[in-house]
Amino acid sequence: MKKWIVDGMNVIGSNPDGWWRDRRGAMRRLVERLAGFAAETGDDVTVVFDGRPFELDSQGIDVRFAPRRGPNAADDEIARMVADRSDPGSLTVVTSDRDLAARVRAHGAGVVPSRAFRTRLDGSG
Q1: How does pLDDT run across 45-63, given as a tens digit for each residue?
Q2: What would the mean pLDDT of 78-91 be, rounded to a whole number?
Q3: CA distance 5 to 61
Q4: Residues linked to residue 27 through DSSP beta bridges, in sequence order
């Protein structure tokens, strides 16, 4: 079983499909797709979002909102989660943010680009 940490808004933003008109709807749709991915693969998935928390059915995955607001809030939370892990090499972070990718790689985590992961999600359930 793999452990994934997903930069939620980075994955959402990897496809300019008008998501910005319904940010919460886009977040819900991503959670649904991630839940399907987790069910299909048996992998452990955490998604981290920026912005004000709202009620969101996690559907069996770990859904988090960055504890602070502002630029790079989710990136900072993801980097903290990786750094705090006793075995960061067991994690794969999904992001196309170069700075975040460098930060988590420095701790030993793997990185998968958002667009590639999104393509994988779009091809599954």
Answers
A1: 999 999 889 998 888 999 9
A2: 96
A3: 11
A4: none
